[in-house]
Design brief:
Elements lengths: L1 E6 L4 E8 L7 E9 L6 H19 L3 E5 L7 H20 L4 E4 L1 H9 L6 H11 L9 H32 L1
Parallel strand pairs: 1-4, 4-5
Antiparallel strand pairs: 1-2, 2-3
Helix pairs in contact: 1-2, 3-5, 4-5
Length: 172
């Protein structure tokens, strides 16, 4: 399975692509962080992110797009930008006919490190180890995007199987 993970943010948006299957080694396909200047118009910034997301989907042909589920933050301005870019990722995937999975930050942390309260350094260290990289992806948004993709490789297939079993049981 090929998963494109998106760590949304208006100033920095991490995009990571991973190949893998549960119980098998993971492979890094691509990682990037799209930057936009804080003083640019919001519409211009969103266009940059929309173009980058559409390009990554076209270039790397993922099977699914995993996006960090936006959660409430104290800084309303930050959460608005994060939500806007998350929405772009969802629209880009849907336009390409791809399924979208949303994962909470604590779900991703738990999947990758074993602790839902892991810090950025722990996430970076585990992503480095799991993908057999020489060094941690930088900045942290890159590691976070890869962690989202890894989380979905490991948890997404189980979630899909459970949903299929529920549908099958309901049909009986």
């Amino acid at each position: 399975m090929r998963v494109l993970g998106v760590d949304p943010g208006l100033t920095r948006c991490g995009i990571g692509v991973v190949d893998g299957a549960p119980g098998r080694p993971l492979t890094l396909v691509h990682v990037d962080v799209v930057h936009t200047p804080a003083d640019a118009e919001v519409g211009d910034r969103l266009v940059v992110h929309a173009d980058a997301l559409a390009d990554a989907i076209a270039r790397y042909a993922p099977d699914v797009v995993a996006v960090e589920r936006v959660f409430s933050q104290h800084n309303v301005r930050t959460v608005m930008g994060t939500a806007q870019v998350a929405g772009l990722a969802i629209v880009s995937a849907t336009r390409a006919g791809l399924p979208v999975a949303l994962h909470t930050p604590s779900e991703v942390k738990a999947a990758v490190t074993g602790s839902g309260t892991a810090d950025k350094a722990q996430i970076g260290a585990m992503v480095t180890r799991l993908l057999r990289l020489a060094e941690a992806p930088r900045p942290a948004d890159a590691a976070d995007a890869l962690a989202l993709a890894i989380c979905h490789v490991w948890r997404g297939s189980a979630t899909n199987k459970l949903a299929a079993a529920v549908v099958k049981a309901a049909a009986r």
